Amino acid sequence: MIPYDFEYYRPASIAETVRLFWVLDHQGKSPVYYSGGTEIITLARLHLIKTGAVIDIKHIPECRALGFEQNRLVLGAALSLTKLEEANPFPLLSKTSSGVADRTARNKITLGGNLCGQIFYREAALPFLLADSQAVIAGRDGIQRRSVHDVFNGGLRLGKGEFLVQLLTERSYSGLPYVSVKKRKQWETGYPLITVSALRKEERLRVAFSGLCPFPFRSAELEEDLNRRHVPLETRIDQAVRRLPAPLLNDIEGSSEYRIFVLRNLLAEVMEEMEGR
Amino acid sequence: MRQTPHARMGLHLNINGEEKTVTVRPADTLLDVLREHLGLTGSKPGCLNGDCGACTVIVGDLPMKSCLMLAVEAADHKIITIEGLKNTPIQKAFIEKFAFQCGYCTPGFIMNAHALISRHPQAGYETVKEWLASNICRCTGYREIEEAVMSCLRKPEMERTPKGS
Fold first, then answer.
1. Which residues of chain B does A103 touch, with a Cβ-Cβ cutoff of 8 Å?
2. What is the pTM of this model?
3. Residue A187 gets which letter from DSSP?
4. Which of A5, A11, A105 sits opposite B25 (nearest CB)?
5. Nearest CA of chain A to the CA of B59: how many Å?
6. Fewest C-beta atoms under 10 Å: which of A179, A181, B18, B46?
7. Is B165 helix (H, G, I), strand (E, B) or coil?
8. pLDDT tens track of chain A, all 277 residues?
């Protein structure tokens, strides 16, 4: 049971949602945007998040968009992960997000919720980082498009009162060769350790990571090392590992040394598969 | 904009084909309301963290962990709890295959499996495995549960049995 009260709002438009946020904020209610809500409920039960009002964005039409518009895939932030998997407009996203939590939980977890949550894995970010997608952000200054590299740069970069409405991805990325592998320390259902997603565009490999650092990331320098195909694979991996951003995670799921050990093997697996195609 | 008062609100829910009106806090989870307000105690509180699946109910046509859903979110959907299932194939199969031991996880498994069978009546083994991974049985009776679910499915789209068995 959640040990405190909050108000619940269900706006039907972007403008109404933003306006509501600021009204509630001025009332001192510390409002939070609510999509799937799984993380908010879990943290609220433990008193790890405190809010006087939640604003449910699932009924905003733009947040439920799913389809191609001209040459672009439009995915609303309030789409559940299983809805995305079943529609499968972006196979790399389907594959990567199918590793999040479990099937029933993914009926509730949304794309925006996974990307904007506090839990550091946020695997759904990887395909968008690889595809140089754009994020549609709503806030006091209206609706803006920003590169996902700016929005997910070492953590989520949203201003106060802003929320993620959609992700826009060029259609061509949905058909590119990809690999996405998730490793867990225990069984097939344990908590995640590392996820590596890779995509090949114009003979260059792009690679993004979750579970290594407290944020999902993609590194241009690291990719440069991995793409030196004249260099032996083991050497490329050694060089790439030196490019990892700090800090590396070191927790009950795996020490930083263990994560590096798993990463080396995982990169070898991913590189062999992608370069063999 | 739908707004709720801070403390308590009247909420209409369609549960097991019946219209119910309850007075709840917006912060109440669906599990809280089912058990504490409506006396539907078949949905079990387990981890309360979305991990165990003991509280699974069907909302619309999808299994949902009722500990991870606010009751107010379920207002526009049809909800089915274990109390709403009567002599369904999966319930009979659980008995025939001895698919429970202590029984605490059973309602959650049955609700998840019922949704699976309804949505994918010809599901293959990999699909069954993926769906059942949402629930935990601490008595570890997984093999019998899996057999019960497989026995309710029609002949396969793909394979029906695990590789190597």
1. 130-131, 133-134
2. 0.94
3. T
4. A5
5. 10
6. B18
7. coil
8. 999 999 999 999 999 999 999 999 999 999 999 999 999 999 999 999 999 999 999 999 999 999 999 999 999 999 999 999 999 999 999 999 999 999 999 999 999 999 998 888 899 999 999 999 999 999 999 999 999 999 988 778 899 999 999 999 999 999 999 999 998 877 776 777 899 999 999 999 999 999 999 999 999 999 999 999 999 999 999 999 999 988 899 988 889 999 999 999 999 999 999 987 6
